[in-house]
């Protein structure tokens, strides 16, 4: 990995470019002060934080621009086209795969000043937002009307609705409410050509390929998402929790599969391995867990349906040898679910850690789990390797691995970190899983996308990118594997 | 409309091309006999049938090729690339928008010989098919294992699984089970470059843009779909029916909206206007309908959930002034739902007719209905203009218009037909609806796609097409609006 390179090889952004930007969107929207650049020199990627903590030189963008409107984004793209200046779209910086690594050859487009709630339509259950609206503000705005987006990524308080779309995010309640691609109604975006598109006009369409999917998951490489309309739900009439100890991962997966194959869809269904039960629920479970795993469910919907679901799932649990776990487990998870670790605190304790989410069909998931955990444990420095699953589909399930490695000398952390990632990616692919469930690709997963897409799929992605962005202006170096 | 032109302007396919094809896939797979060409000279589009019935000259493809494997499709594409020969992919010919209009400059690729059921995976609920497998055969194959695809287009007995994907089809049970984009797990396709892609490896992925969507809805313009893997469901534990008279369309829509906003999802929920009640259910309803509309529901799922749903929907119906309709209505619809009219029979009775499906957010749907019906009635020849809705979403609903026009002189039918289409498209767009719910675009809707995509969206579609298919080899003249 060429660290901190955007892959353009082009030079520094000149003063003429900045003058053009200042003229078009106003001087105050063009920031070149060290603090503004430093604050946006990377996203939440562990490796960027590690390098920063170790005082390794991290390059800065030439400037940060803060458009206040879609029109200003178009003006910025116009300058980029005219001057051949690459742009790095930046939401709220919560990405964890290195989608944001600017350098002096680029201008960073911070969408944080585009934070208007445009419209909430209670009849059609639609809400339109500027791309920069923070997730929790969006949710709170619709919650005041008794509605919900139903999209609860762990990052909800530090991510933007535009970021959700750009990274193909998944929320904790996805099993019932879907992932972001199931929630997006329309996308407003400025293409690398400078054109403004509004894609998605109807509840459903068969009007050629669904072009919204060119932007969903593109991580800023196909244009700049400026606005998002999301489909809403009413807040559920009832919420209930249930929790069961699982005698084995296998029994837990079998029960989960039976639940969704029987057409029950509790929005949250999380299975923790025995290690993660201790790490997350020790106070509540130490007397009863006996080294078992745990299946935690949240049920939502009309009361009558929730009742029927609780009964049916209780019967399934019994059939698969699951036993009731303490009732407080669910509410405890709800209360603490968005705690995000501080990488810096870990580094200071000589630890480097990350979570890696993959997915697999039901018949492959145990093999993926076993192979990944075994491979991580081969690494001398690794002190923790564990997993839970958090998103369930009729066709399979995700796995969310955690690894923690210890090094007295922080200089060794980067190689260990990248080595652990390589192991998880390669073992997952070898066992028939998909290497990227919901954190996106960024620079971190870029070399491994070929496992999901195949060589021809990667070539197709490159071809689409070249067609939309022939000058390579949009977040160069991110996502799209090099030839 | 340049009738029967593929838009390529290129000449006739030469003998050298046919020799290359014969060499690569075998002589018996290359058909040039008049009957083979005539059988595949158009799809189920009314206008093609009308022209054919009137003995207007309809051009034929230079040849029909019948590949038996994905490898043979690749071989055909290789010949196409080397010789600059356009290809028209052909499933089972049930399209109704003119996606198939070959001429002597093209070779038609009939996928009907690719009809293998590749695998049924009962654990992961996945079934893989050759693209040419007929829909009902696919459904019957999984039904033998107690499973269902849950995708029931009216054309199920005359359409192929590859066609479903290529046209972004919708099934009658979509309200619970989703449309084809919700059912597709992976797509195997030969791109215009000749490369074979296998897109979709995991239950869900955030591995860049979801490239499956370049092929879904592309109607053969972005490559040839050769294989499809669909996600299955278990057959439901219980099925139940209910039916209500609606005092007005408005009350019916309000009740339907309340049902889905309360998170009940009966797979089938169809509202018929008063005219269509007479047309479809006269025997059953003549004593009680009193010029009212009708809401017909099919409920499926675990018995406990079906019971809860029936109760909840009964209460909603009452609240909105709906009254019980005869119980036989639902089973009657089930038994007759896939009857497709014979255009020819209508022509012989001096009638030309079609159905046109659009969609709209809830707040626009009545305006669309009123404007379209009023506009159709302005046409002197129109004798019937009516509608029902058949697909419900939280954000809105579709409308399925029927028009019938009468002309003693069949020479007048084409202009009336196209005029009626124009009225429906333009009134729908003017009132804020989407012009294409699920029949796709073909040549018929091509001029109206701009209403959904905007000019910039159409330009984007063209750009993607040019990138994937720079030689313009794939179904030229179809779908993609001209510049």
Pick out its properties.
homodimer, five-stranded antiparallel sheet, alpha+beta, eight-stranded antiparallel sheet
What this model shows, in words?
The structure is a homodimer of 483-residue chains. The first copy, chain A, is of the alpha+beta class. The first copy, chain A, contains 17 helices and 19 strands. Chain A has helices at residues 15-25, 34-39, 46-53, 70-83, 135-143, 161-167, 174-177, 180-183, 212-215, 249-261, 274-285, 303-319, 329-336, 343-348, 362-377, 413-430, 449-468, and strands at 30-31, 63-65, 87-90, 107-110, 117-121, 126-130, 147-148, 184-190, 196-199, 224-231, 233-234, 238-246, 268-272, 293-301, 323-324, 351-361, 382-389, 392-393, 396-406. In chain A, the strands form four sheets. In chain A, strands 12, 13, 14, 15, 16, 17, 18 and 19 form an eight-stranded antiparallel β-sheet that branches. The first copy, chain A, has a five-stranded antiparallel β-sheet with strand order 5-6-10-8-9. A four-stranded mixed β-sheet of chain A has the order 1-2-4-3. The longest helix of chain A has 20 residues, at 449-468. The radius of gyration of chain A is 23 Å and the shape is globular. Mean pLDDT of chain A is 96; it is low at 1-9. Chains A and B meet through strand 9, helix 9, strand 11, helix 12 and strand 16 of A and strand 9, helix 9, strand 11, helix 12 and strand 16 of B.
């Amino acid at each position: 990995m060429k660290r901190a390179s955007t892959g353009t090889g082009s030079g520094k952004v000149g003063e003429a470019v900045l003058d053009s930007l200042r003229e078009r969107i106003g001087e105050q929207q063009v920031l070149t002060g060290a603090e503004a650049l430093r604050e946006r020199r990377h996203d939440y990627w562990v490796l960027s934080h590690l390098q920063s903590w170790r005082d390794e030189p991290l390059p800065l963008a030439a400037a940060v621009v803060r458009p206040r409107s879609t029109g200003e984004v178009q003006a910025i793209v116009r300058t980029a086209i005219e001057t051949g200046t690459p742009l790095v779209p930046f939401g709220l910086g919560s990405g964890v795969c290195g989608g944001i690594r600017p350098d002096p050859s680029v201008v960073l487009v911070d969408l944080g000043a585009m934070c208007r709630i445009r419209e909430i339509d209670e009849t059609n259950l639609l809400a339109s937002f500027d791309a920069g609206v923070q997730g929790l503000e969006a949710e709170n705005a619709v919650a005041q009307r008794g509605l919900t987006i139903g999209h609860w990524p762990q990052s909800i308080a530090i991510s933007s609705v535009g970021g959700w779309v750009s990274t193909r995010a998944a929320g904790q309640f996805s099993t019932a409410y879907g992932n972001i691609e199931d929630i997006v109604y329309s996308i407003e975006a400025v293409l690398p050509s400078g054109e403004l598109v509004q894609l998605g006009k109807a509840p459903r369409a068969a009007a050629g390929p669904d072009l919204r999917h060119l932007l969903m998951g593109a991580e800023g490489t196909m244009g700049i998402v400026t606005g998002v309309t999301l489909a809403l739900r009413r807040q559920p009439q009832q919420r209930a929790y249930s929790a069961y100890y699982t005698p084995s991962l296998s029994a837990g997966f079998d029960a989960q599969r039976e639940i969704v194959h029987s057409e029950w869809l509790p929005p949250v269904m999380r299975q923790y391995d025995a290690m993660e039960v201790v790490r997350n629920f020790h106070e509540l479970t130490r007397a009863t867990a006996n080294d078992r795993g745990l299946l935690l469910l949240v049920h939502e919907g009309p009361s009558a349906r929730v009742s029927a679901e609780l009964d049916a799932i209780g019967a399934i649990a019994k059939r698969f040898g699951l036993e009731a776990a303490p009732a407080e487990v669910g509410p405890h998870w709800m209360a603490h679910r968005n705690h995000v670790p501080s990488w810096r605190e870990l580094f200071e304790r000589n630890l480097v850690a990350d979570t890696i989410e993959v997915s697999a069909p039901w018949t492959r998931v145990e093999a993926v789990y076993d192979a990944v955990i075994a491979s991580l444990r081969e690494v001398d420095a690794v002190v923790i390797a564990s997993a839970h699953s958090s998103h369930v589909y009729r066709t399979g399930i995700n796995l969310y691995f955690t690894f923690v490695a210890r090094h007295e000398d922080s200089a060794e952390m980067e190689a260990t970190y990248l080595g652990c990632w390589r192991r998880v990616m390669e073992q997952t692919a070898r066992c028939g899983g998909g290497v990227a469930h919901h954190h996106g690709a960024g620079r971190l997963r870029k070399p491994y996308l070929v496992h999901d897409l195949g060589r021809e799929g990667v070539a197709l992605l490159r071809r689409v990118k070249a067609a939309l962005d022939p000058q390579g202006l949009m977040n160069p170096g991110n996502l799209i594997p090099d030839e």
